[in-house]
Amino acid sequence: MKYIATIDDRSFEIDINEQGEIIADGQRLSVDFHSVADQPVYSMLLNGESFEASVSTREMTVEVLLRGRLFLVNVEDERQRRLRETTHMELEQEGEFTLAAPMPGMVVAIPVEVGQSVEKGDNLIILESMKMQNELKAPRDGKVSGVRVSPGDSVDQNQVLLTLI
Amino acid sequence: MFTKVLIANRGEIAVRIIRACRELGIETVAIYSDVDRAALHVRQANEAYLLGPAPSRDSYLRGDKIIEIAKAAGAGAIHPGYGFLAERDDFAEAVQDAGLVFIGPRPSAIAAMGDKGVARATVAAAGVPIVPGTEGIGDLSDEDLLAVANEIGFPLLIKATAGGGGKGMREAASLDEMPGLIKSARREAEAAFGNGNVYLEKLLLDARHIEIQVIADSHGNTIHLADRECSIQRRHQKLLEEAPSPFVDEPLRQKMGELACRAAEAVDYLNAGTIEFLVDKDRNFYFLEMNTRLQVEHPITEMVTGVDIVKEQIRVARGRKLRNSQEDITLNGWAIECRINAEDPYNNFLPSTGQLTSVIAPSGPGVRVDTGVYAGFTITPHYDSLISKLICWGETRGEAILRMRRALDEFRILGVRTNIPFHQKLLASPRFMVGQFDTRFVEERFKFEENDEEQERLEIIAAVVATLVTHRATQEAAQIIRQSERDTSNWKWVGRWERMQR
């Protein structure tokens, strides 16, 4: 079965054969793929070279932690790719972004206000948790459309703090 | 002499203290909050008692309740660990008033070192150099601050007199920007501490944070256990420490050690403590503050001196003399500690909480792991994010670094994100390897997400892994549908069929 794996803007064509063999980027490789002790950890022997990776899947993205580095991989099979290409389904930048609290904590400061334009990476909320002040940043450019909390508020995990359009 | 100790702490440090007690044949009493019932320190202590709900102020900060538990359990002493109540002179006082031994300094020494103005004045009087600034006067007017700023010289720091943790702190590069910065520093200090007073301190460039471990007994002996390098920090949080410092030579070590002992003696210090210094690139050093407690990074000193600091603390608290004189203390090899925090280095070091599904700690030659967690334990957002300390010893600094890299590779923690990838990258950076860094290195010059050759090679490997995982998930989903057609095994099915035919 043929897949296309994408990391950032680089794509790799990976063809999985049934009997312990793959073709990655035109290279034929023997592969032994083994999940370790019922954990999301995999041991992989690729042409004899041993790799170990922990893997978690979030929405469409496969997160692979390999040798101390994190890779975010999008995997599609041929059918999905064709479908996406014909419908021009692109990752949309529009729509509302909701900033939810990644953990319970206390809102220390809100350096932005409603109506303010922000750039990707700007601090939106400072949340204190685990004795640390954590900066929650804008994932993209946009405009603050709503602030649902005030400094000093205690918030629960996943509580909506702020929205961007 | 006490034979039972209550440990007024949790996590790895509580476990560390329990270990010392057990080696000395002393009984241990643990305390815990609602969410820590299954914590390692509770499992390892001889006795354990519930304090209250999870938030620290209802549990680990309840000094009154802790003293009550100690008395009820028949403990003769309390070890505060670090954090929580460790540097509260009123708690130390209350422990003594209850007729118990506080394993730490006298309350008067905690109080003297806790007030920044008093601490600076006291050690300066004892002949210890302090960072130039506005000494002794914490409530200068804006005009006075501007007048004195030129004498101190730029760049300088505006700091909150009542402050800490970087709140109300501003950096000023010139006189022009001073008025605005003083105003905002005052506002922030007022909001945070209810006190808008600020003072000025010269900003040392290229400064390193190097500290000296001291320990004193009640017979008038104070010795130091050499230096620790703690310049690898992020937002004033230490991440990695090493002993000794690659920057300190023997004459400097002796000089800093002597002055550290003198600073401790100036407040009639008892038990273990740490004098923090800032050291500039010309090897001038200045007193920063004293931590009147056991430090997180004490193990690296233990590794290179061979002294078990926690056991020594207990002996000193029992009224014994120090086991070593200054001449006995020699350094052997090199030690590094990496603080393993439940933080996501790929997402701005946000704390990561949840259940640890798997923990495999490194082992082998020269490796020590101090931890308070295990697989199945849940990391909650109530306490700090330190889950483990990985300490490696080597004959040389080079060996210690390579050993640490090996040990980090072995460390497997699943369930929460950790800063292990950060440490791996740091230990591979050329500037760290040659020992050229200061307190701003991590924030200003170190690029965590920088790509290199290895990155490209691993990308395709990661792509293969992700594809195989996706493929497997698809196959399994397909199999589950097939299985539901007949959910028992064929053998069972045949057996039933045969019985029906009888």
Give a description of the structure.
The complex is a heterodimer of chains A (165) and B (502). In chain A, 6% of the residues lie in helices and 58% in strands. Chain A has 1 helix and 16 strands. Chain A has an 8-stranded antiparallel beta barrel. Chain B has 502 residues and is α+β, with helices and mostly antiparallel strands. In chain B, the strands form 6 sheets. In chain B, strands 13-12-9-10-11-14-21-19 form an 8-stranded antiparallel beta sheet, sandwiched between helices. In chain B, helix 4 (89-97) runs antiparallel to helix 5. Chain B is globular, with a radius of gyration of 27 Å. Classes of the chains: A mainly beta (165), B alpha+beta (502).
Total number of helices of chain A: 1
Gyration radius of chain B (Cα, Å) is 27 Å
Q: What is the topology, as strand order, of the major beta sheet of chain A?
A: 1-2-3-4-5-6-7-8
Average of per-residue pLDDT values of chain B: 91
Proportion of residues in β-strands of chain B: 15-25%
Q: What is the radius of gyration of chain A computed over CA atoms, rounded to a whole number of angstroms?
A: 21 Å
The percent of residues in helical segments of chain A reads under 10%
Main structural class of chain A: mainly beta
**SSE-based structural type of chain B:** alpha+beta
Q: Biggest interface: chains and residue counts? A: A-B, 52 and 43 residues
Annotation keywords:
heterodimer, A: 165 residues, mainly beta, eight-stranded antiparallel β-barrel, four-stranded antiparallel sheet, 1 helix, 6% helix, 58% strand, B: 502 residues, alpha+beta, eight-stranded antiparallel sheet, five-stranded parallel sheet, 17 helices, 22 strands, 23% strand
Question: How is the secondary structure organized here?
Answer:
The complex is a heterodimer of chains A (165) and B (502).
Chain A: E1 2-7, E2 10-17, E3 21-24, E4 27-35, E5 41-46, E6 49-58, E7 61-66, E8 69-77, H1 78-87, E9 97-100, E10 105-109, E11 117-118, E12 123-129, E13 132-137, E14 142-147, E15 154-155, E16 160-164
Antiparallel strand pairs in A: 1-2, 1-8, 2-3, 3-4, 4-5, 5-6, 6-7, 7-8, 9-16, 10-12, 10-15, 11-14, 12-13, 14-16
Chain B: E1 4-7, H1 11-23, E2 27-33, H2 40-44, E3 47-52, H3 63-73, E4 77-79, H4 89-97, E5 101-102, H5 107-114, H6 116-125, H7 142-152, E6 156-160, E7 170-172, H8 178-193, E8 198-202, E9 208-216, E10 222-234, E11 237-243, H9 250-266, E12 271-279, E13 285-291, H10 298-305, H11 309-317, E14 334-341, E15 343-344, E16 350-351, E17 354-355, E18 358-360, E19 367-371, E20 378-379, E21 386-394, H12 397-410, E22 412-414, H13 420-427, H14 430-433, H15 441-445, H16 453-483, H17 490-501
Parallel strand pairs in B: 1-2, 1-4, 2-3, 4-5
Antiparallel strand pairs in B: 6-7, 6-8, 9-10, 9-12, 10-11, 11-14, 12-13, 14-21, 15-16, 17-20, 18-22, 19-21
Helix pairs in contact in B: 4-5, 12-13
